[in-house]
Amino acid sequence: MDAKEKALVGDLYRRVAGRAFHERDVLAFLILLREHAARASPVRELSDFVAHREKDRGSLKTYVHHVVAFGEALVKNTAAQLKINAVHSAEDFCQSLNAVLGRFNLSPLARDIADDVLTCVMSLLQDVRLFHNKQEIGRLGLGRFEKELWLCGAIVMPPKNVQVVFPALIVPNRYCSSGDVKQLGAFSGLVVARCTNGKLRLYVDGKEVT
Fold this sequence. Notes:
The chain has 210 residues and is an alpha+beta fold. 40% of the residues lie in helices and 24% in strands. It has one domain. The strands form two sheets. The protein has a four-stranded antiparallel β-sheet with strand order 1-6-7-8.
């Protein structure tokens, strides 16, 4: 790493550690950390996703295939034995992030701060289109529940138009109420994540989501 790169990472790290950052800072942070993260690690893959909105390789590609397989089995009433896991766990993301920060001689971030960073990643990945066999089958979106916030993939399976929704990423919900669970906790619009006064907050159309 060169001196300028190290200085940029250090500046963004101090914003994150001080809990005074915007999701745009997380985008820049991950892009800078990307080349220093181990291949196939959560930080490397998620930084690729936010930088290129890439969805046809790595763990997200595997996730899409699993969701499609589940949807096909659901249509055939044979889905009982299938299980879909999140792309990366919040704990694994925290460990991966701190491993990369160690290469810059920066102190590890606490788990709750790493969760804030991951929540920003989830916000950045809203509306990413999901493809299977070169055809769009759905999109990523945010869902809120009493105890968890999800970045979830939602697809519709023909011929019965069965909707299949599963989480791609999950963090503890410290940010807002559960909303209307009948609608999968959907937000009223695109979410923007911003951390001010020591707390990460979510906004839609400039208004804080409570």
